TrEMBL record:
Pfam families xref list: HycI
Keyword Ligase appears in the UniProt entry: no
Keyword line: Aspartyl protease, Hydrolase, Protease
Family: Belongs to the peptidase A31 family.
InterPro entries linked: Pept_HybD-like_dom_sf, Peptidase_A31
Native organism: Parafrankia soli
BP GO terms, sorted: protein processing
Organism superkingdom: Bacteria
Name assigned to this protein: Peptidase M52
Entry GO MF terms: aspartic-type endopeptidase activity; enzyme activator activity
NCBIfam families: hydrog_prot (TIGR00072)
Hydrolase keyword on record: yes
TM stretches of this protein: none
Length: 157
């Protein structure tokens, strides 16, 4: 079973870098058997990044009305994503669009989990808001646990 985690973001747009931060934190103590990747969120690169994966976890920033650091978790296995998932994207097509393109092309993994972390500042510059940085640590722990549970062999008992 191939498991992939993709952290999306732009290091030079403050809180937009939160997905990249989660990927880097996961690499410090990588989940066994999980590919951890970074992406700027360009649709074609995402389609290629999760190609061949049985399950993918995607972490991205959200430009939402929720307080900074709010974590939104969505499973997109068999239904369309809300349009505001990954709404901090600087690309014409956002994360929700890319997932639906992958689904339409038959190139979406069987299990898709998206963590969108609400940010405060998406202007030019580096560094995460403290609430967003705390959420990155929380999501890192959650993704580590979820991927470990997903990768565990089925019980033979």
């Amino acid at each position: 079973m191939r498991l992939t985690v993709i952290g999306i973001g732009n290091l030079y747009r403050h809180d937009d870098a939160v997905g990249l931060e989660v990927a880097r934190l996961l690499r410090r103590r990588p989940p066994p058997g999980v590919d951890v990747l970074e992406s700027e969120g360009e649709p074609t690169s995402l389609l290629l990044a999760w190609e061949g994966a049985d399950a993918v976890w995607i972490i991205d920033a959200a430009d939402s009305a929720a307080p900074p650091g709010t974590v939104h978790r969505v499973e997109a296995d068999d239904h369309a994503l809300p349009r505001d998932v990954g709404a901090a994207s600087t690309h014409a097509l956002g994360l929700a669009d890319t997932v639906e393109i992958g689904r339409g092309l038959g190139r979406l993994p069987k299990h898709v989990v998206i963590y969108a972390i609400s940010g405060r500042d998406f202007s030019a510059g580096e560094g995460l808001d403290p609430d967003v940085a705390a959420a990155a640590r929380t999501v890192t722990a959650a993704v580590h646990a979820e991927t470990a549970n997903h990768a565990a062999p089925p019980s033979m008992g």
